[in-house]
Amino acid sequence: MKKNKFITTLFLSCLTLSAGLLLNEQAFANPAETTVAPDQIITENAQKLTQIKEVKKELLHQKNNKNEQLANLEKKIKKIQVSLDQIEEIEVIGRISNPSKSDNTQMIKLKTELLPTTIQADAKSIKKEQLIELKQQETSLKIETDTLSKQQSETEKQAAQLSDKITQVEKQKTEQAKQTDTRTAIVAAAKTHLGKPYVYGAAGPDAFDCSGLVQVAFASAGQALGRTTVDQETAGTIISVTEAQAGDLVFWGSHGGTYHVGISTGDGSYIHAPVPGDVVQIATVASYAPDFAVRIL
């Protein structure tokens, strides 16, 4: 009884995991709105998976016990059924062997070595009652085994969902790490050109205009990008300047009519090649505010 209660409690607690999975998927669906770190999601889901494995282990143990009980019951039922069949055979033989036969001179009575009829009747009644009780137990055990099978199926499904979720988040974590490395590489590449002069139409190695600097920095990190500011602003998703992270682009002008671009460093600053007569430098959003930003990675 205690084990059954324990199993039920564990199983019911695991039924909430599917809802938890859904919530985790929603929480991690949009990187811009993510409030839960991938490592935390992985850890929480791994803990849930461990819990489910414990439930699976207990369910299997319980099912094996039920199957063993069923096998023993079936043996008892078979044994009692054999006894009943034998009693019924004896009754049939008794009915055939008991009639009296007479002729004109004497009465010949056929004798049989049978148990008294009342003893046979009592034995048969007891066996039938035992058989009914055992079959009721068998039915109950089959229902319980069926329930355990369904619970096993549900926990298997939940375990698969959790494993898939962990794999998905680990993949996203790897992708995010790659993006972070790429973003860092872009900013680092741009910084290597600090102090080089602005020259209209130049794209290195000794001079740059704004979009030329951006193109070369992205190329250094293995990312192909168009040459003009309009090409570059349409290469990603528009975001607000306050959302800009390292490696995002910041633009001046209206969308489709931009005239300047820089690379965000992610700390309220950006690197850009400003105007003729000036050099590649780091500036702050506060000193010369962009109109919008674009996320390419």
TrEMBL record:
Q: Which UniProt keywords apply?
A: Coiled coil, Hydrolase, Protease, Signal, Thiol protease
Which terms does the record give in the GO molecular function aspect? cysteine-type peptidase activity
> Coiled-coil region(s) at which residues?
49-90, 152-179
Signal peptide segment: 1-29
Report if keyword Coiled coil is assigned.
yes
What is any Pfam family matched here?
NLPC_P60
**What InterPro entries has UniProt attached to this entry?**
NLP_P60_dom, Papain-like_cys_pep_sf, Peptidase_C40
**Which PROSITE patterns does the protein's record reference?**
NLPC_P60
According to its UniProt entry, the protein's GO biological process terms are: proteolysis
Does Calcium count among this protein's keywords? no
Transmembrane segment boundaries: none
Where is the NlpC/P60 domain positioned along the sequence?
180-297
PANTHER family found in the cross-reference section: MUREIN DD-ENDOPEPTIDASE MEPH-RELATED
**Family statement:** Belongs to the peptidase C40 family.
Annotated protein name in UniProt: NlpC/P60 domain-containing protein
Q: Which species expresses this protein natively? A: Enterococcus ureilyticus
